[in-house]
Design goal:
single chain; three-stranded antiparallel β-sheet; mainly beta
């Protein structure tokens, strides 16, 4: 638990930041931790015309398929997981939760 979130934002009074396993109801725009088959991919953060991207080794991927039937994967390194992190091989998201009575911040 933390009063400062993943992006350095202060939690409002009565709340704290907590890392929770990421769960998706739909496969579209879902993140996945990379398997051994996908290791060696580079992070695409910052990729645009004339820019190659971050270049660090990717650790997770995001499905950018939209309404497409087939997944379109974008790979990202640990630094560019956008409020996510991998803990014990599971992707977690930093979420804001109210502090329960008797719970320390």
């Amino acid at each position: 638990m933390s009063t400062t979130g993943n992006l350095g934002r202060q939690a409002p009074d009565g709340h704290h930041w907590v890392w929770r396993p990421t769960v998706y109801a739909e496969p579209l725009h879902a993140w996945e931790v990379l398997t051994a088959d996908d290791l060696g991919r580079e992070c695409r953060y910052g990729t645009r015309p004339g820019n190659r991207g971050c270049g660090e080794q990717a650790v997770a991927r995001l499905n950018l398929a939209g309404d497409n039937q087939w997944p379109v994967w974008a790979h990202y390194c640990e630094q560019h997981l956008f409020t996510r992190r991998i803990i014990d091989g599971v992707l977690h998201t930093c979420v804001l939760e109210p502090i329960q009575a008797g719970e320390a911040a």
